[in-house]
Amino acid sequence: MTDEQRCDSMGCYGSAWAKTRRLDGLARRSVTFDSAYTPSPVCVPARVAMLTGYRPSTCGVYTIHDPLPAERARFLTQNFTDAGYQTASFGKQHYNSAGLKAFDHESFRIVGDRVKPLGYVDPADEAGADMVQYPGEDASSRWVLAGRLPGTLDDMPEARVVEDARAWLGSRDPQRPFFLRVSFNGPHTPVVAPAPYDTQTDPDAIDLPIDRYPGAEPTLPPTLHRALVHRSGTHRLSDAQVRRARQVYYGLVSALDALVGRMLDTIAELGLERDTVVAFCSDHGAHLGDHGFFQKQSFFEASARVPLILYDPRAESFCGSRVTRPVSTGSLLPTLLTLCGLAVPEDVDYPVLPGTSVGSSETPGCPVVSEIAYGERGGRGHDRYVMLRDGRWKLTVFKDRYDPDRLPAYDGLMLFDLLNDPHERRDLAPRIDQDPAVRDTVKGLLDELARIDGHDAPRATPAAFA
Q1: Is 0.70 surpassed by the pTM of this model?
Q2: Closest CA to 92 of 195, 189, 168, 193
Q3: Would you say 66 and 44 are in contact if contact means Cβ atoms under 8 Å apart?
Q4: In terms of Cα–Cα distance, which of 329, 254, 348, 337 is closest to 43?
Q5: Can you tell me the distance from the alpha carbon of 319 to that of 30, in angstroms, rounded to the nearest whole number?
Q6: Which of 44-58, 132-146, 448-462 shows the lowest per-residue confidence on average (mean pLDDT)?
Q7: What does each C-alpha distance from 434 to 20, 73, 123 come to in angstroms?
Q8: Is residue 82 packed enough to be buried (19+ CB in 10 Å), middle (13-18) or exposed (0-12)?
Q9: Which residues make beta-bridge pairs with 106?
Q10: Cβ neighbours of residue 338 under 8 Å, at least 6 residues apart?
Q11: What percent of the chain has pLDDT over 70?
Q12: Which residue in 340, 218, 330, 319 sits closest to 277, CA to CA?
């Protein structure tokens, strides 16, 4: 599991500039999900949802500060423990559960000693690193967006995570099955990669459209502009800085790919390859200047769509197959439990993944929901901002307290036709009063959201639909 990894950072997702030999090799033996979405485009809610099987709106965790309520502190990993599995997680944990652990053994390691998210510890390391630091208005947003890591691949904190995991695999009870999570911080900030990875990607080969200037992109809803562009907008960086940030990001993913290879090699060396299911995913994606900002917390594809690969040595049908239907990474643990013949609690919000030996690829697709709140960024408190991906359509809306008398009538409402506009350049929502087809589409998607929430009709209908 990685953090903040975009799909276009991997060759198996069609990226011409990605260098991910080991992950691409895994994908050729696996089922790859082309439209997998995070339960939430921010770390803690996404990780809690994946561990519990509960949507953010079910467990009440919307931001990185929200604790998991005691009545929802149920982890699907416990089902493995109850079945006699040895469970362990190394690296980034990042879920707020008041001391209750999701794994029997957890080792917490995120960043190294020499580079922190907001800067280099030793000025000598910073010299010559070609660093890009975001010039934010407050210190908490001055992230290291690019730089050279002092040392080699072995000096990466993620390399130490791999060594911890390998040591655990070698010392565990070989008579018992295991569930192991190897959780990397990268390519999350600080985005630093050792040489030669930090310069191996030609920045001119990276084809990401950037909207840098006012009027260059469809106007974002006011709350999103305050929460995203105001705090991490691309307008504060030069073209050279943006190019360097992109270059190191993809180089860092390439370095992580090599470390994933070490784990796959260890599984093979221990004779476990024919008896081990392997999954690869990320908690959410990240912006690299596209749509006018860096960081995450949006429902654009760069932030909400993530890589998801699943390998099962028993399933020949997996080999090189692809699922284009939208899915949620919240379905990963229910799927793994089912593949291992273990029970899945009846109250989980996420179905088993389609295209697997336990999830038919012939059944109709389920709409996919992702959720977040912008309270810590000064926008609408804990109002739920929701994405619904249903077929070709992606809708976003502030769902629960839609009050046109308090805020602009369409604050947060966006609609994209991903079939005809895969890069999300044309928000159709502003045409809602002039185009009956747009109006009907939005109304139908809001009704679908209401159904998912367990209501017969939207809790609060925008005035345009009254």
Answers
A1: yes
A2: 189
A3: yes
A4: 329
A5: 5
A6: 448-462
A7: 46, 47, 57
A8: exposed
A9: 89
A10: 344, 352, 358, 359
A11: 89
A12: 340
